Amino acid sequence: MADFHQNGVVTTLHNLAPRPLEEIEAELTRFSQKRPMALILPCLYSELEGEAMPNILSELKQVPYLGEIVIGLDRADAVQYKRSLDFFAELPQHHRILWNDGPRLQALDAELRSLGLAPEELGKGCNVWYCVGYVLAATNAESIALHDCDIVTYTRELLARLIYPVANPFFNYEFCKGYYARVADGKINGRVCRLLVTPLIRALKKVLGDREYLDYMDSFRYALAGEFSFRRDVLTDLRIPSDWGLEIGVLSEMHRNYAHNRLCQVDIAQTYDHKHQELSLEDKTAGLSRMSIDIAKALFRKLATQGEVFTPETFRSIKATYFRIALDFVETYHNDAIMNGLTHDIHAEEQSVEMFSENIMEAGRIFLESPRITPFIPSWNRVVSAMPDVFERLQEAVEADHKEFTGA
Question: Distance (Å, rounded) from C-alpha 16 to C-alpha 380?
Fold first, then answer.
């Protein structure tokens, strides 16, 4: 059971009592009569063959309040797209698959790219962006949730708790961020959030002084959670990062566009586990090494837009301050783990901190040398302004793929 403490400037909705799931779903079903709901599932084809996705599908089949499920499918050829249609055919809800590698969506992407309006790189950000476009084009959903497809501990209660804050018509939240304890297999997980994001934010506060944005970011209990929910009007002006800074970038966009009292975070799971990235100590282009660089750059970019001036000396101070704070956190987490009967590898934790500290400097170097580079994909408002029929064409491409391979 969680405590009820409210920390920071963003409202925290806790899991204080074992409320029956059937009761929550009954309320959501009532809400859906006036506020239709949709779910976005960005996935790789390989995840359909993994441990998590079959269970997620089994759970979603029992969800009574969703009107639409939009699946973004990456890294799939024609045979695999057909298998994906068969895989998701069990869903009783109306659903569509965006075959992102198919010729129709690739042709639309190429045209948008020629106008400078397409994602610069492939990945989750690109997948989510096209799914958001489809939701805006083809559904009447007013509340939309998004979660990952590799959650091996998934239950439909996670979705219910995630979408509830933006689905309840008596709440005023436009955006909700999920959080949870990253504990599985007898140990504490979530190294990037524990040992990079929180210590880096605290270091930035020490070096740069109090900043309202840093207080805001420090309010989130799990800033890197891949689970969000939105009201529909949020999505038209949302700029989605295409790199590993996706989650930090979305939080920064919410900070830019909305007052704090329109945002919240919610406890969505007592246990949560998914596939883990490799640390990649020797390769800065992969795994947690690449992720840590992109996340640090996302924070630096946001602060720069608020007038913060960075120099190589600033980044050296940030690195040194971060390193001391992060090592203190290693000890904190060690004690927390031991008291709860969990294992904790101090050597591996300090290896992570050492790599992250070097990557903070690398992120700073890239930031200073390439000030014009931005990973943000244009908002759909901007895309529609340049290509007024883009929603119709996106919807037609998805429907044509579906009809070609199903005959329906």
Answer: 38
- Which pLDDT tens digit goes with each residue over 343-357? 999 999 999 999 999
Query: β-pairing, 175-180 with 228-231?
Result: antiparallel
Residue 347 near residue 277 (C-beta atoms within 8 A): no
**Backbone torsions φ then ψ of 230, nearest 5 degrees:** -140, 155
Query: How far is 176 from 297, CA to CA, in rounded Å?
Result: 24
How many whole angstroms separate alpha carbon 171 and alpha carbon 267? 17
| Burial of 392: CB neighbours in 10 Å, binned 0-12, 13-18, 19+ | exposed
Q: Alpha carbon 365 to chain centroid distance?
A: 26
Please give the torsion angle defined by the CA atoms of residues 19, 22, 27 and 31, in that order, rounded to the nearest 10 degrees: 130
DSSP string of 2-22? Answer: ------SSSEEE---S---HH
Of 224, 230, 232, residue with least CA distance to 274: 224
Q: Specify the pLDDT at position 224.
A: 92
Assess contact for 227 and 147: CB atoms under 8 A.
Answer: yes
Least Cα distance to 398 among 96, 114, 123 occurs for 96
Instruction: Report the candidate in 349, 213, 346, 344 with the shortest Cα–Cα distance to residue 288.
Output: 349
How far apart, in whole angstroms, are the C-alpha atoms of residue 88 and residue 73?
11
Q: Is 236 helix (H, G, I), strand (E, B) or coil?
A: coil
CA distance 325 to 201: 10
124-138 and 246-257 helices cross at what angle (nearest 10)?
50
Instruction: Give the single-character DSSP code of 152.
Output: T
Alpha carbons 229 and 173: distance in angstroms, whole number = 10
Q: Look-up: residue for tokens 């970019």?
A: 301
Which residue bears the tokens 């140990």?
A: 187
The alpha-helical segments, DSSP class H, found in 306-345 are 312-339
Write the secondary structure of 239-251 as one string of H (helix), E (strand) and C (coil): CEECCCCHHHHHH
Which of 173, 119, 104 has its CA nearest to residue 143? 173
Q: Which two tokens stand for residue 278?
A: 């490799």
DSSP run (H or E) holding 215: helix 212-217
Residue 185's pLDDT band (cuts 50, 70, 90): confident
Q: How confident is the model at residue 139 (pLDDT cuts 50, 70, 90)?
A: confident
CA angle (131 as vertex; 126, 134 as ends), nearest 5: 130
Write out pLDDT tens, residues 152-179: 999 999 999 999 999 999 999 999 999 9
